[in-house]
Design brief:
Elements: E1 2-7, E2 12-19, E3 24-31, H1 37-41, E4 49-53, E5 57-58, E6 76-79, E7 81-82, H2 95-101, E8 105-108, H3 112-122, E9 125-130, H4 137-146, H5 153-156, E10 162-164, E11 170-175, H6 180-187, E12 192-197, H7 202-207, E13 212-215, H8 226-237, E14 242-245, H9 247-255, E15 259-276, E16 282-294, E17 303-309, E18 315-320, E19 325-328, H10 343-351
Parallel strand pairs: 3-4, 4-6, 5-7, 6-8, 11-12, 11-13, 13-14, 14-19
Antiparallel strand pairs: 1-2, 1-9, 2-8, 3-9, 10-12, 15-16, 15-17, 17-18, 18-19
């Protein structure tokens, strides 16, 4: 069956329908990872977005037990070619069947390189994936320009608190759209991890007397999270050590008077170099974000830059002045991606007083 990807600038790509045949409007973004497509599909940070994979062959090792959440959160999936016969000793099915089971519409057989170059040139755009060959461009384009991701954090967060048992430090993890491996990275280091829904009050979190607080990754515009930012400001005012990743990093910045802005096309992939400004060492990191903290408006009495992106000079982390708080824009838990910066979880445990 034919499928069409229609962008808000009027560009149309024609390919083959994969997965669900339902019509979807979403923000179109690209990811440069060569592997880890299942982790991308199940990363809650992609809620409200359709993902174009720049690597030309996707699905060659099938579906494996590597999901970062219980379901897929992407709005749509765009690939050059899907592998017809996956081969891997852990393979449990095909990506084609997975997309159908998860009701994710997609398109294959288009020039993903041309699409990526267009998004890099013009910036991230909204688009529609449809199987309707009689589409009306004049009717569709205004709908694309009006689309907004909205409050996607409320969509992806957990419904109720849950706990991973451990004999070490007690960590409260605020689930803003958390990848499973964040809690696992802490739990593997002996921590008892209690996962809280995104709209949990600071009073409830602090009332559990945690040794540390973790603010997770998540989707959407950080400025759409007003009530959550208010609660994070209360967490900041406490003396509990805090470590934040991605959206959590942005929300902590907003809670302390800093600003964020949308990037032209964001950072999404497993090959982004970040420099630790304290040691001068460069790490290769996994990233997935379309917004960034504006360090030009950063008050050094509140926080100072801790990491910088080597490619474009954007901020990749903050260390908070006079506080036991540090935050990073990239993903030290990886999945997919390199594990170069996993030591940051050890640093967090040291902030909490070290392993018991």
């Amino acid at each position: 069956m034919k499928a069409f990807l229609i962008l808000e600038d009027g560009t149309v790509f024609c390919g083959e329908s994969i997965g669900s045949t339902r019509e979807v409007i979403s923000e179109i973004v690209f990811n440069t990872s060569m592997t880890g497509y299942l982790e991308v599909l199940t990363d809650p940070s992609y809620a409200g977005q359709a993902v174009c994979m720049t690597y030309p062959l996707i699905g060659n090792y099938g579906i494996t037990p590597d999901m970062e959440s219980k379901r897929s959160w992407v709005d749509g999936y765009i690939v050059r070619e899907l592998s017809r016969i996956p081969s891997n000793f852990r393979c449990q099915g095909t990506i084609q069947d997975f997309l159908k089971e998860q009701d994710i519409p997609g398109i294959a057989g288009i020039d993903t390189r041309a699409l990526t170059k267009l998004l890099r040139d013009k910036g991230t755009m909204n688009g529609m994936i449809t199987t309707n060959e009689n589409y009306n461009l004049e009717e569709i384009l205004p709908r694309l320009k009006e689309y907004r991701t909205g409050d996607v954090v409320s969509k992806v967060t957990c419904d109720a608190p849950s706990k991973l048992a451990g004999k070490g430090k007690k960590v409260a993890l605020l689930d803003l759209g958390a990848k499973k491996n964040i809690a696992k990275s802490l739990n593997d280091r002996g921590c008892e991890v209690t996962i809280y829904p995104a709209h949990t009050t600071a009073e409830e979190i602090l009332g559990s007397n945690p040794d540390g607080i973790m603010l997770s990754n998540g989707p959407g515009d950080p400025k759409d999270c007003g009530p959550i930012i208010d609660e994070i400001k209360k967490l900041y005012d406490s003396e509990v050590p805090i470590f934040a990743i991605c959206l959590g990093h942005q929300l902590m910045a907003l809670a302390t008077g800093c600003d964020t802005h949308k990037m032209k096309y964001g950072h999404r992939g497993g090959n982004h170099p970040v420099k630790d400004l304290e040691t001068g060492r460069v790490y290769i990191s996994s990233q997935n974000h379309g917004y960034v903290v504006d360090v030009d408006k950063l008050d050094p009495k509140v926080a100072t830059p801790a990491f910088v992106n080597v490619n474009d000079g954007t901020n990749e982390g903050l260390k908070y002045t006079g506080k036991n708080i540090f935050t990073v824009q990239f993903h030290p838990e990886a999945c997919p991606g390199p594990q170069d910066s996993g030591y940051l979880f050890d640093r967090f445990i040291e902030m909490m007083g070290g392993a018991q």
